[in-house]
């Protein structure tokens, strides 16, 4: 948010982890992050890494330990649910742990995201479905099974 015109991360910079995420997917992601090349100053992010299966987590840690020897200037952020801090990945990477508290008010964060996700010319875009011509939206319900 310090550079409002800087683009948001691209698909190759973010891995959204689930219990079904495979070791191959994590391996490809870590290789993009840790193998030095001329891709610029990307910041790679693993979201919900605490949800990876035990086997995938073990293999991910092994690969990380192996690859990090070749690149000391990598930029990797691993985000986990604080309620699952004793799962494998948060435990294995605990010596890198940094507790984060948002540094900006929620309204400022929302404005920043709106700037990046608003469709300029909504002519016949699917973005016209979402409020204020946003290209993304969140649909939620407090009750399960209401078709959202």
Automatic annotation (TrEMBL):
Listed GO biological process terms: negative regulation of non-canonical Wnt signaling pathway; sprouting angiogenesis; ubiquitin-dependent protein catabolic process
Source organism: Grallaria varia (variegated antpitta)
Keyword Amino-acid biosynthesis tagged: no
Keywords: Ligase
Domain of life: Eukaryota
Entry keyword Ligase: yes
Organism placement in taxonomy: Eukaryota, Metazoa, Chordata, Craniata, Vertebrata
A GO MF term: ubiquitin-protein transferase activity
Entry's Gene Ontology cellular component terms: cytosol; membrane; nucleolus
Protein name: RN213 ligase
